[in-house]
Amino acid sequence: MAPGVPLDEREEFIRRSLVNRYMRESLGQVPLGLLLCIVMASLCLRVIPMEHVMPWITVVAACYILRHLAETNYVRHLQDAPTAVQRGFVRDIRPVYLVLAIGLGSSVLLFFDRLGDISEFACWSILAGMMYVPTPRLALLPALGRVYTTAFFASALCGMLLVAWQHPSPTSHTAVWFIPLAILQWALTNRMTREMHRTQREHYGLVFDLAAQKREAVEAVQTKNRFLAAATHDIRQPAVALAIYAEYLEAYPDMHLELAPKIHRASRAVNGLFDSLFDLSKFDSGEVQLAVGPTRIAEVIAALVSTADPLAREKGIELRVRVVDALLQTDAARLQRMIGNVLANAIKYSHPGTKILLATRMRAGCVRVEVWDQGIGIPADQIQNVFAEFYRVDAATRLAPDGMGIGLSLVTRLAAALNTRLTIASVEGRGTRVSMEIRDVDPDLAKCRIALDCG
Q1: Which of these, 108, 234, 262, 337, could form a disulfide with 159 (CB 3.0-4.6 Å)?
Q2: CATH number of domain containing 231
């Protein structure tokens, strides 16, 4: 099965495909079946009175016509209907197949041991065709197949026994010995039908998986295209700014005090963007190698605050920090990047005059890092989407139009690599809380000698 595909969706596709294929193929076979029944009736009319043949052909023809009308309606209107509706249709049409199978099987009452050898052989051949030709199609829908084959064999055998009992003859008594053979044929037909059905299910399962893989491949290409377009756009802005500042600095050297901070910010933006892009590409290619070692969470937070606090102050945001120290066995640089991306997101999508809290605390042997903000928040129906690449809520786009929307996507990859449980809660218009529960706590530190039961 294709990865990431819900089982119910795959099963629904298989069932829908089996029903649709059966109805399309069966619709074309109805006229042929009706024609063969007319041929059989004409053979019987040479010996059997019309008042015996006409009721039989009337019932069989009526069943064929009802079946044709029902299947035509399905092909025209129900091929795209929900699976439950299609299953209901199959259930409703089952009595028609039951009566048709009984009618076809009971035809032995007309010709068995009553026609000449050639005519009777022709009738037996037609009857065998009525049984075995539809078998591959009936295998698509076992619910109809079981009804049809069981009623057909049962009515044919009952008809043979009735003829042998009412009109005993050497031929009829000899034919009775074929009854065990017919029962064996019925059992083999049912088994063959089950095997065909299993094969067809596997076939349509593969069709679904290939289609799903194709969709994933197309989506991957589209994602890469969006990635390149977004990256080119976002890199171009600070790069152009750097070029302009360099030209100004070359033309007006005395403006270096004014231009230096701008050059620094533009360079920092380019470096941050490149770092994110490189990390994202390494995660996608599976080339990430962690440099795990003893890491104090307080030192990581301190390094983050030293760079984030000026950005927050520049935007008029108060950054508060509450730290409980703990020793971790992790990749310090990537841990800092994971927390830093969350913190940068909080600063980027918060209004001036609000507060952000960066806090760490111990919980059940784990270190929980939390970032609380009073920003724009995320609508409840979009919370899961913010972890997708390039996804940004509308309000975020308006507040920070220059973002790429890869920050939290990278955070999820870092969290998985760093054995961290990531959760997010938000109220639109009021703020967001992102929690990172880090499990790789060094048990040698006294504060962390607790069983790791937070998984």
Answers
A1: 108
A2: 1.10.287
Q: Are 148 and 101 in contact (CB under 8 A)?
A: yes
pLDDT tens-digit readout, 228-273: 666 666 666 677 777 887 888 888 888 878 878 778 777 877 776 7
Could you tell me if 404 and 388 are in contact, meaning their C-beta atoms sit under 8 angstroms apart? no
Q: Supply angle C-alpha 189, 130, 197, rounded to 5.
A: 40
**Domain endpoint, select from 162, 180, 215:** 215
Place of tokens 């390039």: 390
Which residues lie closer than 8 Å to 128 by C-beta, 6 or more apart?
none
Half-sphere CA count of 202, side-chain side, radius 13 A: 6
List, in sequence order, every residue forming a beta bridge with 433; answer none if it has no partner. 372, 425
Distance CA 141, CA 23 (A): 10
Q: Pseudo-torsion of CA 379, 235, 343, 396, nearest 10°? A: -20
Q: DSSP string spanning 297-351?
A: HHHHHHHHHHHHHHHHHHTT-EEEEE----EEEEEHHHHHHHHHHHHHHHHHTS-
Distance CA 134, CA 137 (A): 5
159 and 76 share a domain? yes
Burial of 305 (0-12, 13-18, 19+ CB in 10 A): middle
What strands lie across the sheet with 431-438, from one edge to the other? Answer: 318-322, 355-363, 366-373, 431-438, 420-427
Beta-carbon contacts of 371 under 8 Å, excluding residues fewer than 6 positions away, are: 339, 342, 343, 346, 356, 357, 358, 433, 434
Q: Are residues 313 and 281 in the same domain?
A: no
- Percentages of the chain per state (helix, strand, coil), in multiples of 5: 70, 10, 20
Phi-psi region of 453 (alpha: psi -120 to 50; beta: other; left: phi over 0): alpha
User: Model pTM greater than 0.85?
Assistant: no
If asked whether residues 277 and 340 sit together in one domain, one would say no
Side-chain half-sphere exposure of 119, counting CA atoms within 13 A: 18
Cα radius of gyration rounded to whole Å, the chain = 38
> What does the pLDDT look like over 10-28, one tens digit per residue?
888 999 999 999 998 888 8
Cα distances (Å, whole numbers) of residue 185 to 132, 159, 177: 10, 17, 14
